[in-house]
């Protein structure tokens, strides 16, 4: 799958819209196992991204994602700011000319390098990894979103090993990771604009 | 239980408004209301190592209340319970820099670690040498290479005070950082909540705590603790003291040690109660053969309006005690000057 | 709303246990655990005027937390919200006496007034000259010859600090007392509660405050205020600042005055919120043409775990400011030493 | 009416018993208009009085009352300690040899001198005054207790001018003064031992 600047912009705007819609839910997921702010954090960041694009929209898809990533880094804070920011920035930098799937792989690698989480640690990596793998295997954004959703659901029975949920030990079991759920929204947004 | 109304104007502006208040009553500080960075307004010796800390807001007086002579040079204040972004930490780093390098004192949370790390890279681009001291003093969390590790909590105060004195004394950046790692290795904390707290703008507390129960092993972000137990009918403070000191002693044997002790309120517990807890903590330490060299009792590292307390200790040497006793002049900690 | 559990051992022993904690962390103080009297443990200059205050407990750090160089010589700590008995005040008076007479700083409540008065008579029997300064700074109460008059609240801090410096400076007992009356005449306070508080051992708060309402014109004993009003949807801190400053300004015009300002937490409100209120108080004073010369923000004169705040001001002269700035070394207020 | 030491002791013990029984109520009366401690205060004091008499019981009625009064002053604190203490101490000092009614008048005068309250200010004086007047008029302790009860009830519609209730202004109207209610107990106890 290749991405033009307009589609990249539409993707991020759709993601911002979904985050707006679901911010309360994301924060509620962060309540039992975290510090009740994930939805608020991501919403603050995506508002800033949308506002930045209203000022000036870059003219390549790579620049769009890179700009979105650095805006997230500069406005979100918390764990999700650097992680989502790195995901989009690395993806954007790897994108130009090339294929979205392999660019997202570079983004995923950046997230793993930065945060040190592996699949099974009950973080956003658990949703991001299968989604990227789906695209790499040539499956549709719809299927990638489905894979992300399965990955997010798979965090529920786990004892978290990274992020705040890890402080809870066994008490965190039975809760879905909020960051993983945001990744589902990112791929749902992609599916919306690719359709 | 309906939450008590907050004394704020707009929850979204809580941090800006609080910093405005800090600026209004502390003209000796320099407060950047856009970046949410608080720094010393006075001249510092060229080459003095700069000390920067920061993190989410909601822990007042930590960190902005510890900016001043003998302690931090600058603090970066994130949104409530959200670590600051790299831009803020970079701004604080620049404000703290007098040419001798800067030490970042970072509480060990993924968000703080990542944002400070990115800021350190940006500072490096501007030729400011940055060393990082990671504070992970909370014994409630099992430490492991494969997890996020222990949280940084009350022990941060020991690190900031001791390093502040060391930097004033003229230690070099690597020495200050090494000393910081030593202080961290000597510091342990354990906290208990008697009520949850609610982030401004939220309509729900971070967790529900039924009447008659308390959370053991809490962090400082309104998150639940490791265990929930019934509040005993009598001897509540004794039970809290015993639990906290036992957890600490198990991890870092306290017998024959001279200690800095912090009996720290989480924000909503009155001093009368903290003093009762302090009596029990001192008795408990005494029973374990430890000696209290210096102690502080009050709200220093808080979690909004949470009721409860945290016990922090740091084993000392005569040199560390001398640094602890050195003059400090900040909004929240002041002596000798 | 179920009350949050208290961090105490036995509610009946709350005051003794809290004083035990104070003694444990402040070896420089002399703490009488039977009489509940806290006094300076260091030598004082023969002939120095002794300063004594006291009252019910539950207002920590007031008064025991203000014992030390440059402030009180002794404090008598009554049961929670109950003034001490004459025997306690007499013991404090003796502990404070260095031969130059003693000034009693008494908050204007019938109980405090009567018990201090009886103690003054007992002291007179022992040839200790006692002068009394009555603090009645609370503008929420209408003053009248035919009532108990205004309550003593946050302004007590100004009186204790300024008189402490004056006594160190060597003023005679009548001069210290006269200065105290001057400071009282310059001090005004107004308080607001966002939640009630519960006396240890009681199963009910001092009043019921429905969600969404606040009490204006409260005292510091968990009693209800003069008026109950809805908490505004936004601008809560601004509304509190406006109400408090307006009530004060109406009673004591503030324009063109240089002020000491205390933005005082009632015990359960976190510093983040107090700082927001401080910003609004300073803005409100500014709008009325008053200047903030010095300000304190924090829990100084509390009402157990009550949420809310009190605004206190004192108009100054250069001489008063100098006394305010003089060194003080107590558990709760310290600078210059 | 004359009082011997045994009756005086019995009177104060009966009063202590009634205070124990009704402490909760007295404190509850102090809640809406005061600081919720009146019952606790008086109970602490009367426990000390009873304990003091267990150590050593004075052998005249006057000494019994004087001792009780100074014990209250030394143990109660608050407004009620000096006021009830002065009442009993002055009464005791005035009693010896003489009549209880006129001794109580001396006690009442001491209370008024100390506290400055007049009838109608909504304090314990409103119950104490009619009770003393009843005894002075030669009426029985039963009638004195009734007069005290009427006096206590009369505080309800008043705007208090003394004590903590005065801080409330109009908001204190409709509440009975707790100190006045304690005076009712004092005369009820007298009635019990005189019967
Ligand atoms: N080390 C990590 N690697 C990958 N993702 C992580 C890591 N730590 C945390 N996360 C993700 O971040 C999310 C939390 O984000 P957020 O609540 O915004 O930040 P914070 O935890 O700082 O409050 C978690 O749900 C998790 O998916
Ligand atoms: N000036 C006064 N004269 C007479 N009685 C008073 C006066 N002030 C208070 N009282 C009495 O004291 C009672 C309160 O006693 P208590 O609650 O024990 O003390 P405090 O008010 O110090 O908490 C009031 O109900 C009233 O009857
Ligand atoms: Mg979070
Ligand atoms: Mg967070
Ligand atoms: Mg009282
Ligand atoms: Mg009372």
From TrEMBL, chains A, D:
SUPFAM superfamilies: DhaL-like. InterPro entries: DhaK_L_YcgS, DhaL_dom, DhaL_dom_sf, Dihydroxyacetone_Kinase. The keyword Nucleotide-binding does not apply. The keyword ATP-binding does not apply. PROSITE patterns: DHAL. SMART domains: Dak2. One of its GO terms (cellular component) is cytosol. Keywords: Kinase, Transferase. Residues 6-192 form the DhaL domain. GO terms for biological process: glycerol catabolic process. One of its GO terms (molecular function) is glycerone kinase activity. PANTHER family: TRIOKINASE/FMN CYCLASE, TRIOKINASE_FMN CYCLASE. This is Dihydroxyacetone kinase DhaL subunit.
From TrEMBL, chains B, C:
Keywords: Kinase, Transferase. SUPFAM superfamilies: DAK1/DegV-like. Signal peptide: none annotated. It comes from the Bacteria. GO terms for molecular function: glycerone kinase activity. PROSITE patterns: DHAK. InterPro entries: DhaK_1, DhaK_dom, Dihydroxyacetone_Kinase. This is Dihydroxyacetone kinase DhaK subunit.
């Amino acid at each position: 799958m290749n991405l033009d600047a307009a589609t990249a912009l539409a993707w991020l705007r759709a993601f911002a819209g979904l985050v707006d819609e679901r911010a309360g839910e994301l924060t509620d997921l962060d309540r039992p196992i975290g510090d009740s702010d994930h939805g608020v954090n991501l919403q603050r960041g995506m508002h800033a991204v949308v506002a930045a694009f209203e000022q000036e929209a870059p003219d390549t898809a790579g620049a769009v994602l890179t700009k979105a990533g650095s805006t997230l880094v500069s406005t979100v804070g918390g764990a999700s700011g650097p992680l989502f920011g790195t995901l989009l920035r690395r993806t954007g930098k790897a994108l130009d000319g090339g294929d979205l799937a392999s660019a997202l792989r570079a983004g995923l690698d950046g997230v793993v390098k930065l945060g040190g989480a592996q699949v099974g640690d009950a973080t956003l990596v658990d949703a991001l990894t299968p989604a990227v793998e789906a695209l790499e295997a040539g499956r549709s954004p719809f299927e990638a979103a489905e894979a992300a959703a399965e990955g997010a659901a798979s965090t529920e029975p786990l004892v978290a090993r990274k992020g705040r949920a890890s402080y809870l030990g066994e008490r965190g079991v039975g809760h879905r990771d909020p960051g993983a759920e945001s990744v589902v929204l990112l791929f749902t947004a992609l599916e919306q604009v690719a359709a | 239980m309906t939450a008590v109304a907050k004394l704020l104007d707009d929850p979204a502006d809580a941090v800006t408004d609080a910093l405005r208040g800090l600026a209004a009553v502390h003209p000796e500080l320099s407060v950047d209301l856009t970046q949410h960075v608080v720094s010393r307004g006075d001249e510092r010796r060229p080459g003095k190592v700069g000390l920067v800390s920061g993190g989410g807001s909601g822990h007042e007086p930590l960190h902005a209340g510890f900016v001043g002579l003998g302690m931090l040079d600058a603090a970066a204040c994130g949104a409530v319970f959200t670590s600051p972004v790299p831009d803020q930490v970079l701004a604080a780093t620049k404000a703290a820099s007098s040419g001798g390098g800067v030490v970042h004192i970072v509480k060990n949370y993924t968000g703080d670690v990542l944002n400070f790390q990115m800021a350190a890279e940006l500072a490096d681009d501007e030729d400011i040498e940055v060393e990082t001291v990671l504070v992970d003093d909370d014994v409630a969390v099992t430490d492991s290479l494969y997890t996020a590790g222990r949280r940084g909590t009350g022990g941060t105060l020991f690190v900031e005070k001791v390093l502040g004195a060391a930097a004033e004394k003229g230690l070099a950046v690597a020495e200050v950082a090494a000393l910081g790692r030593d202080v961290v290795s000597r510091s342990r904390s354990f906290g208990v909540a008697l009520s949850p707290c609610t982030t401004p703008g939220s309509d729900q507390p971070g967790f529900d705590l039924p009447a008659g129960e308390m959370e053991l092993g809490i962090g400082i972000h309104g998150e639940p603790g490791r265990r929930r137990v019934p509040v005993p009918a009598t001897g509540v403070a004794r039970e809290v003291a015993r639990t906290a000191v036992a957890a600490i002693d198990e991890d870092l044997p306290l017998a024959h040690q001279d200690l800095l002790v912090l009996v720290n309120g989480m924000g909503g517990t009155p001093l009368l109660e903290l003093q009762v807890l302090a009596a029990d903590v001192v008795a408990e330490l005494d029973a374990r053969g430890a000696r209290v060299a210096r102690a502080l009792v009050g709200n220093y590292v808080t979690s909004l309006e949470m009721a409860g307390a945290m016990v922090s200790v740091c084993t000392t040497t005569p040199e560390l005690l001398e640094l602890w006793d050195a003059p400090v002049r900040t909004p929240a900690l002041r002596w000798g000057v």
